[in-house]
Amino acid sequence: MSFRLARILSVALIGVCAATAVVAAPKAKTSSKKSAQPAVPALVWRGDVATARGIVTDVAKAYEKAGKGKIEVQPFNTASGLDAVARGSADFAGSARGPDGTAESSLQFTPVAWDALVMITYPSNPVSSLTLKQVHDIYYGKITNWKDVGGRDEPIDLYAVASPGDGVEYSLRKLLFGRGNQPVAAPRLYVNTAKLEEAVALDPKAMGVTTLAGINGNSKVKMIHINGTPASTATVKDGSYPLFIPVYLITNESSPKAAQVHTFIEFLSTDPVRTIARQHQLVPYDEAPALVDLDRSRRPTILAEVGARPVAEEPAPVAAPGATYAARSAIAPTSEHTQEAKQALETRNEESAAKKAEASADAKTYTVVKGDTLSVIAKKFSATVSDLRSWNGLKNDNVRIGQVLKVSAQ
User: Fold this and answer.
1) Are 107 and 250 in contact (CB under 8 A)?
2) Rounded to whole angstroms, how far apart are CA atoms 105 and 339?
3) Under a CB-based contact definition with an 8 Å cutoff, are residues 339 and 125 in contact?
4) Mean residue pLDDT across the chain
5) DSSP assignment string, 269-311
6) Integer Cα distance of 251 and 88 in angstroms
7) What are the backbone angles phi and psi of residue 116, rounded to the nearest 5°?
8) Is residue 157 within 8 Å of residue 185, measured between CB atoms?
9) Please, are residues 40 and 69 in contact by the beta-carbon 8 Å criterion?
10) Per-residue confidence (pLDDT) for residue 189, from 0 to 100
11) Is the pLDDT score of 15 beyond 70?
12) 181 with 164: CB under 8 angstroms?
């Protein structure tokens, strides 16, 4: 073999070895990836825009940074969040209101912070303060001109969120009228508080309601004081601002990701989350325990102040569930009092189930009362809507007060 031929073969052999090494490297990486543990599925949060902007987006970032997992934030409105959690398309939701006592009985409402409802208007509006009575009368349609509250001679353009179950709107109406579904004189309706705020920022005659956390840092609108008191973390925490509200995390105990959700709830009590809450003008729930009792006592006081008729308290939902247990578990989940509250809740659930079973066995007919729907009646007697239609020869779901319905096949 000549020297020239040997050199050519040597170069070729080196090239083959190099190529083999290049091909082998990716195989090693592929093998490494196959041995890695599967990623933890992301948790899905859905709820009102006010809550999302107020804290959830930043908490989700902190949760991921801490290596706990990922959270997909889907802000829209309260109704969509509650519905998604109930159906299982979201793992938890956020709301600026508590349970309504009926359709949401399968969901768990856990209070996590204190926020404030704030009335907003255009920055150049000379009106800087309103009384609770004036706010009530504006929403009721008794006051329609800014001159009647110290402003210019021009109509008040009252804006509201369209959904009757919106957390912000529901909470305001519950405080001012005693019931969250009170109709109001607001012809301009929006899908959520973010869109409402955008509209108020463009209309010198506008007024609407949002939250302190949601409006924090927005110089395009002006916050109106209530009874001379501005909304702030300080006035919320000491209860001097009258329109403070709890903010809730809504979960479903039957969720397949219940363990992950529990980890997230525990994360909410950590110092990083408390810092985020304060940055967004929220008061961590357990830092103002006196507000729990004050929240109950101020409601009849506000109704008396605005001249509204007292309304019977909505029944506490059995499974939606134990406000006492929810509140205590948010503050001290392992304490003796929390376990007592949990036992009381479980006992109440068992008693309620027994009563429902007894009523279902004994009752043959039912007389429709105010507030009833066919689905509510069906749930009350462990039947289905289609059953009630069949037993009573109904062509649709409409029922009327005083109507007597057969609620059993026998």
Assistant:
1) yes
2) 21
3) no
4) 79
5) TSHHHHHHHHHTT-EEGGG-THHHHHHHHHHHHHHHHHTPPP-
6) 10
7) -140, 140
8) no
9) yes
10) 87
11) no
12) yes
